[in-house]
Amino acid sequence: MIPALLIAAALALGIPSLSFVSPAPGQTITGPKIAVKIAVANFALVDYKTHPKLVPGQGHLHLWLDQTKPTKTSAVKAVSPAYTFENVKPGTHILIAELVANDHSSLTPITTTSVTFTTASPSLLTTQLSLLTPIVIAFLSLALTLYFVSTVKPKTGKSLRKSRSKLSKSHSRK
């Protein structure tokens, strides 16, 4: 709620602002990919490589994932409000975003936001079960079929297993 109020105030004043759409604060994301979406207001995101001159109200994003001392050189430079981090290890993470000018300098006032979220690896048991389910079903079907076939009683009232053993004994005596 507060980020929405800040953006509304920034819009009214024409001040550049940004906030995380995703990940959400405290969100748990399953898997190693983090899809980042940022809402930007009163600021045009442009490619700093094709727009190297300083122009008020335009620039790009710097992103830092789990960096305790973020610098311009360690930043991921993004020219779009969407970015995906790959191979993120399970755990708690802090993501920082800053709006910067085309020359990578901070705006005045500095315009940053951060979000804390968690990543979790997919459950190994869930992954294994999803792969093994068809095999387990086939095995159980076969086992049950063999069990019932071996224990069906013929019209004699005796189990098939006993009938077969008597039959084999009578054939062996001849």
UniProtKB/TrEMBL annotation:
Residues 1-21 form the signal peptide. The chain crosses the membrane at residues 131-152. Keywords: Membrane, Signal, Transmembrane, Transmembrane helix. This is CopC domain-containing protein. It comes from Candidatus Amesbacteria bacterium GW2011_GWC2_45_19.
